[in-house]
Amino acid sequence: MHEKILVVRADNGHDPESAKAVRERLERQLAELYQVAERSQARAIRCTLQAIVPEYTPQSCRDVLREAALSHPAPSL
Asked: Does any domain span residue 76?
């Protein structure tokens, strides 16, 4: 396993109901993510991703486009 991958056990070895609650919350959050993604609501997508993964830091669209252009330059005519 990679050193930066953290494995978290939802039940912490104690209460199996807490694992069920965590799973249900994640399923609700993913359903919300699917809904906003289908509507192409960029800001809502970023906010929902941050709610699911607090460490998530979105890149600006300009940064993403610049990286894409650098890694896949347009062919010269």
From this structure: no
Please report whether residue 9 resides in a domain.
no
The mean predicted confidence, pLDDT, of the chain is 77
- On whether residue 40 sits in a domain, the answer given is yes
pTM value?
0.56
Give the 3-state secondary structure of the chain: CCCCCCCCCCCCCCCHHHHHHHHHHHHHHHHHHHHHHHCCCHHHHHHHHHHHCCCCCCCCHHHHHHHHHHHCCCCCC
How many domains does the chain fold into? 1
Q: Is the pLDDT of residue 40 over 80?
A: yes
